[in-house]
Inverse folding.
């Protein structure tokens, strides 16, 4: 026979746990790019790029990462967040000219993109989340982690004309 | 009785936790590398932020661009490990930590096992002195010892050290430390690069890499100047780097023109790919001989200042 007080105790515990918002489990986002969904994209033969980044954001926020990509390397960009915050929208902009190089809206908000750089470039990666699984209240009240995992490897045998 | 007590204790723990997280709902992640430039208020009173982060590569990544296969390891360029004890004040120790992290990366890239382990020990010791030793723990040193034969592994460890230290400083609200050690690391990377160029006419690839550091110093200075602090060490570090920044501001930045192509054949199980190429022969930053000489002199002077403490 299970003690009723024990059942009430469990019910209270479950109720209280439901009260904890996404915020409470996602305040320390530091390693989200290696511990969140992005980890499924980790590839053998690639190195983790030090400009990989995780931040805490709300669905109302925009995050801009100004990142330097060295030339003669292949990169893989992988974006991940809390399940309630998908899909992730990102735009790549040339920091020097302001030219938009890519918008993942045109590919149904894909979350991984390969980039080869013949030459060194500084890009602004502008990110927001559409949070289609969230209610309006959750959109206004929640914070979640957003991670950008960047992996790279050197070009194998690429011949590129350098100008100097 | 004990269950009642447990329930009260549980509520006692959870309720303050809910209150604390509720209070933090307007705060934003890591306190460093951030510049909140925009804050909009919608009619319902909900704040939205535009978070901007200016990032820059690690010393190992900066050095990995240089083709080590075509160069000889020159230990004379590095700051010797025996010097590590002579730095007394926080700024010297922190800048030197950056310098030694770069030397660690250099030794690792050339596969110098003994030197890599020596520099790793110095990095750990300095990290301990400025109380960020959790970022470089025994496990990491042991991992390096066990993988000393593997070039890729040494490189990864030297990179990991930099990333761990930055992440630790971010988590613990120490942007000042990030500014000082990044400055040291950046100057040492430039110092090694300028000294690897013997002949301006022959050094096209390394010279291009040196010119490309314009992007790095731009991002670093924006980050450093946005750190909110009264710490005179940060102000002095920024002042030190202003001369280098001014030199880079005056070089030809290039048109920035690019070409974007999609590879003819996409690799299986790989994500969609774009290739960013040079749009024209004038698209990249470039250094004239005079600018190179001036930059080299300024870098050597500043590096000497750091090293002499």
């Amino acid at each position: 026979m299970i003690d009723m007080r024990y059942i009430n105790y469990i019910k209270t515990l479950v109720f209280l746990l439901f009260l904890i918002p996404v915020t409470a489990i996602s305040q320390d986002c530091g390693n989200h790019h290696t511990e969140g969904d992005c980890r499924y994209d980790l590839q053998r033969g690639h190195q983790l790029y030090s400009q990989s980044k995780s931040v805490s954001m709300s669905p109302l926020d925009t995050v801009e990462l100004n990142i330097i990509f060295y030339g003669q390397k292949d990169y893989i960009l992988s974006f991940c967040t809390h399940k309630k915050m998908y899909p992730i929208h990102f735009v790549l902009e040339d920091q020097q000219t302001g030219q938009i190089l890519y918008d993942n809206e045109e590919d149904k908000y894909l979350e991984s993109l390969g980039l080869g750089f013949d030459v060194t470039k500084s890009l602004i990666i502008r990110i927001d989340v559409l949070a289609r699984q969230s209610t309006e209240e959750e959109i206004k009240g929640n914070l979640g982690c957003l991670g950008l995992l960047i992996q790279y490897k050197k070009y194998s045998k690429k011949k590129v004309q350098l100008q100097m | 009785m004990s269950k009642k007590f447990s329930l009260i204790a549980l509520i006692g723990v959870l309720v303050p936790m809910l209150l604390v997280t509720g209070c933090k709902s307007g705060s934003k992640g890591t306190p460093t590398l951030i510049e909140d430039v925009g804050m909009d208020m919608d009619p319902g009173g909900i704040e939205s932020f535009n978070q901007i982060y200016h990032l820059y590569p690690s010393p190992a990544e900066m050095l990995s661009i240089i083709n080590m296969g075509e160069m000889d390891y020159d230990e004379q360029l590095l700051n010797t490990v025996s010097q590590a004890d002579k730095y007394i004040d926080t700024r010297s120790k922190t800048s030197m930590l950056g310098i030694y992290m770069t030397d660690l990366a250099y030794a690792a890239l050339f596969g110098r096992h003994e030197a890599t382990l020596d520099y790793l020990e110095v990095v750990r010791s300095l990290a301990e002195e400025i109380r960020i030793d959790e970022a470089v723990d025994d496990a990491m040193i042991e991992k390096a010892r066990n993988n000393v034969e593997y070039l890729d592994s040494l490189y990864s460890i030297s990179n990991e050290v930099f990333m761990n230290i930055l992440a630790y400083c971010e988590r613990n609200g120490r942007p000042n430390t990030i500014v000082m050690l990044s400055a040291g690391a950046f100057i040492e990377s430039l110092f090694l690069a300028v000294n690897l160029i013997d002949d301006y006419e022959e050094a096209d690839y390394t010279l291009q890499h040196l010119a490309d550091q314009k992007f790095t110093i731009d991002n670093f200075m924006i980050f450093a100047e946005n750190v909110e602090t009264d710490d005179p060490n940060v102000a002095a570090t920024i002042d030190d780097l202003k001369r280098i920044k001014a030199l880079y501001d005056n070089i030809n930045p290039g048109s920035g023109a690019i070409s974007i192509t999609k590879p003819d054949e996409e690799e299986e199980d790989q994500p969609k790919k774009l290739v960013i190429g040079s749009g024209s022969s004038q698209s990249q930053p470039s250094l004239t001989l005079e600018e190179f000489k001036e930059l080299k002199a300024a870098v050597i002077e500043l590096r000497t200042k750091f090293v002499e403490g």
Residues 17-26, 158-164 of chain A have pLDDT under 50 and may be disordered. Strands of chain A lie at 47-48, 53-57, 62-69, 73-81, 88-94, 100-103, 112-117, 121-129, 144-154. Residues 4-154 of chain A form a domain with the Jelly Rolls fold (CATH 2.60.120.1050). Chain A touches chain B through 72 residues (CB under 8 Å).
